[in-house]
Amino acid sequence: MRIGLGSDHFGFECKQALKARFVRDGHTTEDFSAGPGRQGQYHGVTEQLASAINAGRVERGVLICSGAIGASVLANKHRGVRAALCHDLYSAEHGVEDDDMNLLVMGANVVTPDLACELAEVFIRASHVSREQFFGIPPRRLGRIVEHIRNNLDGPLGVSALSKMAEMSQSHFSKLFKLSTGLTPHQFVLQERINRAKKLLLQGDARIIDIALGVGFENQAHFTTVFGNLVGMTPRQFQRSWDYEAGEETYGRHFPLRKLVEGNGNRPMGIAEQEFAAGVP
């Protein structure tokens, strides 16, 4: 990692210890400190270090000075800089993980060289974990994407176009979409196409080929294959099974007494059976 270091003369000793530690661990350092014995204030060092972070010359910065609070305030006036004063390990770590802190500020009159090294090591090792990685795509944005999918099932719905709607890279979008829905974008689109097809099949007034094309499949064969994988039967079997269930319901409604004994050889009910079914004592 490219690390920027800064200190006034009060923090020079700690900064030197940090610099040696970072170099030993394989990091690249750039030093913006005032030299030893120089009485310069922290303002100039802070400005230089914050500017380097903003420009991308360094990825993170560590500043040790006597005016740590003022340095934090000054650094945060720079675009792209998220500075915080930390004197405990928890804050140094969670400042990065929760709020993407990129500039650790320590009071030169508060920390020892050993504590400064511990704080800086935790700060450098930590990585930012965005809320999206825990909760997926924000609900409103996800709602817009799902609505777009359902309104355009008859056309192409590739990850490229959907990720642009979400303003994310394709890989990041796919990861968060699965976190939000439990399905990859491709799986979700297929499921929505099949759900729409099932509704159309139950209407019974359209050919299967027309339904297949209407929900975005290139041909009936592909539609039948996907339908079978997700539903467990072909579209025609699904349609017939629904017709059978609907017929059974109608039959039972019009012939309730006979239906009670259909399991008994479909024979006509006797008088005693009819009275029993009708509740006659």
Strand order of the largest sheet: 2-1-3-5-4
Compute the average pLDDT.
84
Radius of gyration over C-alpha positions, nearest whole angstrom = 35 Å
Number of strands: 5
Main β-sheet: number of strands, strand sense, barrel status? 5 strands, parallel
CATH superfamily of the largest domain: Sugar-phosphate isomerase, RpiB/LacA/LacB
**What is the helical fraction, as a range of percent?**
55-70%
Q: DSSP strand (E) fraction? A: 5-15%
Low-confidence stretches: 250-281
User: What is the CATH third-level topology name of the largest domain?
Assistant: Ribose 5-phosphate Isomerase B, Chain: A
What is the terminal separation in angstroms? 91 Å
Q: Quick one: CATH class of the largest domain?
A: Alpha Beta
How many distinct domains? 3
- Give me the CATH architecture of the largest domain, please: 3-Layer(aba) Sandwich
Return the string of H and E elements: EHEHEHEHEHHHHHHHHHHH
Shape: rod-shaped
Instruction: Count helical runs.
Output: 15
| Derived structural class | alpha/beta
Helices and strands in order, then pairings?
Blueprint: E1 2-7, H1 12-24, E2 28-31, H2 42-55, E3 60-65, H3 68-75, E4 83-85, H4 89-99, E5 103-107, H5 113-125, H6 131-135, H7 139-151, H8 159-166, H9 170-181, H10 185-203, H11 208-214, H12 220-231, H13 235-254, H14 256-260, H15 271-278
Parallel strand pairs: 1-2, 1-3, 3-5, 4-5
Helix pairs in contact: 1-5, 2-3, 4-5, 8-9
Describe the overall structure:
The chain is of the alpha/beta class and 281 residues long. It folds into three domains: 2-129, Ribose 5-phosphate Isomerase B, Chain: A, CATH 3.40.1400; 134-231, Homeodomain-like (Arc Repressor Mutant, subunit A), CATH 1.10.10; 233-281, no CATH class. The chain has 15 helices and five strands. A five-stranded parallel beta sheet has the order 2-1-3-5-4, with helices on both faces. α1 links the parallel β1 (2-7) and β2 (28-31). α2 runs parallel beside α3 (68-75). The longest helix has 20 residues, at 235-254. The protein is rod-shaped and about 90 Å long. The N and C termini lie far apart (91 Å). The model is unreliable at 250-281 (pLDDT under 50).
